[in-house]
Design goal:
Blueprint: E1 13-17, H1 22-33, E2 37-42, H2 45-57, E3 62-66, H3 72-86, E4 91-94, H4 109-134, E5 140-145, H5 160-180, E6 185-192, H6 203-206, H7 209-214, H8 225-235, E7 246-249
Parallel strand pairs: 1-2, 1-4, 2-3, 4-5, 5-6, 6-7
Helix pairs in contact: 1-8, 3-4, 4-5
Bound molecules: NADPH dihydro-nicotinamide-adenine-dinucleotide phosphate.
NADPH dihydro-nicotinamide-adenine-dinucleotide phosphate binds next to helix 1 and strand 2.
């Protein structure tokens, strides 16, 4: 097998949470370009349907399922639906996430819970459901979208709950990776820096861009395409000795 062949995903089935927009959309399309059939999960059905059509046009199968990653019942149901329709799940991309900018002394308990439940409990529930269907096949690739915010404290915005959730997700990745390696399941995470998506590009957030750029050695925000090569690496046989790794892709932000 040639080196480029080891990145191919023909015959694989994948699931991407938050697959209708931003980074998750780019991940879903990249997986299909590499040959995988892709199930898309999110709460709103419209963006999922649009990405579904793009995947169809690439000659791969797509499935879109409206669901909330905070709900164990819904997570178990959509995971089982993929397996019952496609026979197996090879790749789980736990990417859905939310971010609020709130000074810590003003964070309501409900906002804290919403962020932690979406960004930390959600990937836990998803990974657990994925491992349960992957273990019998002795094969699986699980990739969590964490963040450089799991390692550094962003500025000038305050986002304690977000930072905490992503730090937890990086450590969850390490824990799951060591526990499930013996079952042929590879768990890793990607930690983006500032990437130009809806989450990082509202007019209010754009005011912070000068500070973010000052702290980013390449002096630009990342584009979703800056992450897709890493995703395909971690989803494919090209990374078969990579376990429990958090791959930071941040234009050098954390390198200062
Ligand atoms: P988006 O807001 O475009 O994507 C978030 C996705 O998650 C949406 O498709 C949303 O769909 C889905 N989602 C949110 N909550 C839930 C839920 N409870 N259940 C199911 N799906 C949900 O932002 P990004 O693409 O930028 O973010 C993707 C990931 O990348 C996040 O985990 C984020 O933390 C991380 N990240 C982003 C960075 C950036 O600079 N953009 C930097 C570092 C990390 P819907 O609302 O329809 O449910």
């Amino acid at each position: 097998m040639g080196i480029l062949d080891s990145f191919r995903l023909d015959g694989k089935t994948a699931l991407v949470t938050g697959g209708g927009t931003g980074i998750g959309k780019a991940f879903a399309i990249a997986l299909a370009e590499a040959g995988a059939d892709v199930a898309l999960i999110g709460r709103r059905s419209e963006p999922l349907e649009e990405v579904s059509k793009l995947i169809d046009s690439l000659g791969c199968k797509a499935m879109s399922i409206s669901a909330d990653v905070k709900s164990k019942t819904q997570v178990d149901d959509f995971t089982n639906q993929v397996v019952s329709e496609w026979g197996k799940l090879d790749i789980g991309v736990n990417n859905a996430g939310i971010c609020f900018h709130t000074p810590t002394n003003q964070i309501e308990e409900s906002e804290w819970d919403e962020v932690i439940d979406t960004n930390l409990k959600g990937p836990f529930l998803c990974a657990q459901a994925q491992a349960r269907v992957m273990i019998p096949n002795s094969y699986g690739k699980i990739i969590n979208t964490a963040s450089m915010s799991g390692r550094i404290i962003n500025r000038p915005q305050f986002q304690t709950h977000y930072n905490t959730s992503k730090a937890g997700l990086v450590h969850l990745t390490h824990s799951l990776a060591t526990e499930w390696a013996e079952h042929g399941i590879y768990v890793n995470s990607i930690s983006p820096g500032y990437i130009r998506t809806d989450m990082a590009d509202t007019p209010e957030i754009a005011k912070m861009h000068p500070v973010w750029l000052r702290d980013t050695p390449v002096n630009r925000l990342g584009e979703v395409q800056d992450l897709t090569g890493a995703l395909i690496f971690l989803a494919s046989d090209a990374s078969n000795f990579v376990i429990g790794h958090d791959l930071v892709i941040d234009g050098g932000f954390t390198a200062w």
